[in-house]
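User: Second chain of the day. Same drill as before.
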Amino acid sequence: MARSGTGHDRAHPLSPPSFDTSYVPPYERPTTQPLPPRSPNPEFGTEAFGAGPALPPPATGTREALPLSWGIITFHPHVSYQMVYGTGLLSGPGREENSFQHTLSPGMTFNLGPRWRLDYTPSLKFYSSEGYEDTLDHAVSLNGSAVSAGWLFTLGHAYRSSSDPLIETARQTSQDTHSTGLGANRSLTDTTTLELGLAQSLRFAEDYTDSHAWSTTDWLDRQLRPNFAVAVGINAAYQLLDPGTDMTSERLLGRVRGRALNKLGYSVEGGVEFRQFLDSDAPMKVSPTVNGSLSYQVFEPTTIAAFASHDIGTSYYTDQFTETTRVGGSLSQRLLGKIHLSVSGGYSFMKYSSTLVSDTVVREDETPYFQSGLSTRFLRRGSVSVFYRWSQNDSGLAGYSYDSNQIGFQLGYAL
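Assistant: Same format as last time:
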């Protein structure tokens, strides 16, 4: 994240990206996928149909030279098509389906000067199985930044309407989601930065619990060496569930980030959470939280990465909350100078517990996955990929387990 000082932006070598809740068009996604495909906010569910490897971006310089502009606004139309064939997926508890999923996503990105970006991408999804309904999804995002009086302000908002098959619900689930984030950073000294953040996450799910969450996360970051920084932080949140048990939580956090030998990058954030269940006899729950990642560039074309996390969230089911532990890794390899190979795999364990009765576990899911794919560019602004994905959900609740193999390809073109 850029830091501001004396009226000019300065790059902080260890600051994370600005809070960005936006939908990311396929041509701008990172070339590695250490995490399984997820919606922008973990409160919004995990899709059962996998996504292919990230499509590589257009060749350097191809987007800036286009004449599609009006004043400070530049227009970048983009379109992608993805076909996936999946086996063993659920269209309802205990109902397995084999289906093709065809997704056509035309869209437009508007760059509003150098700091602001607006994107709209509808997605038409067609299924060959009668167990799923064809849908028209929408994704809109706006994000940007501004500098004033020594502060760097960032704003991001994303809206998405979708009807994807989800692992949690074991069925196609219609929902509207909103994610909003506001950040404010200021350099207190040459080595100390204050980072303030507000966030809102809204989920309106048909036939399931609606979630309204508001939180603030604030950090005091100290750069001890050019490539090493530590921070202490606090988080406070209020979650309103309809229907369901409302919750409040507080977190005491610590963070370490750094880079070694220009090859190894790492970030570890963790702490302890205190969660209260309102209008419930359940006592306060004390839980650890952690989110760590490691990336090592073995050679110029070869990068390996690993991640681990443990977090608390809200459930789609009334009067339940979730505890999720994830571990995994990925390999990104460039072949013959033009082809990108990506291999990733991981494991998640999700526990659903009651918000009404202390230490009552309602459901436990174990979900390993593996994915590999190849992607490359064509005609400078086009991209193509093929992929294979295996995932399995072993649930303690009857009807929610599955074992799925998926294979597919995707095409993208961006001006």
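The CA atoms of residues 91 and 171 lie 4 Å apart.

User: Great, on to the next one.
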